[in-house]
Write a structure and sequence with these properties.
This protein has 188 residues and is α/β, with parallel strands linked by helices. It has nine helices and five strands, in the order βαβααααββαααβα. It has two domains: 115 residues, P-loop containing nucleotide triphosphate hydrolases (Rossmann fold, 3-Layer(aba) Sandwich), CATH 3.40.50.300; 65 residues. Strands 2-3-1-4-5 form a five-stranded parallel sheet, with helices on both faces.
Amino acid sequence: MIRIALVGEIGSGKTFVSKCFNYPVFNADEEVKRIYKNNRKCFRKLKEKFPKNIKKFPIQKSELKKIINKKNIKILSRVIHPYVRDGLNKFLTKNRKKKYVILDIPLFIENNLNLKSDILIFIKTSNRIINKRLKKRGNYNEKIMKIIKSEQLNKNKKRKYCNFVIENNYDKNNIIKQIKKIKKKFND
């Protein structure tokens, strides 16, 4: 199995691009939502760390938003990331016979998840489009976005790790053309 990881800034469209590949996709953001909704063990650990804020199960995003700051995001990450890795390992085991899988994991490089054999694709999107998309999200909070971005490598450093770049202008046909060119290169 060849792992194809999509990397880029928050709001760059990694999830949109991942769906255009037509390979099995592991989406870390969806995995986190599933954990918050279903994992009581994670809930108990977060409640222990943040007893004033985490009150009921399933974990509410509104409760989490209240605790986000530079210090707490690191604590939150240390609690949640092992569960995300478990989900990733289950996904990889389930899809071990597939030729390719897509990994849509925002902190893929930062969390040292990349293997030498992985194909890394940088999703390039203009800052104007990213900001516009982020502001359209119902849960947009500029302070939280700055904290999240501070946890990520800057886009120029991320790009250096990558084998390919996809320019994301949210035109599905254009994305599919770029994907076909990339698939041809790694199939040769």
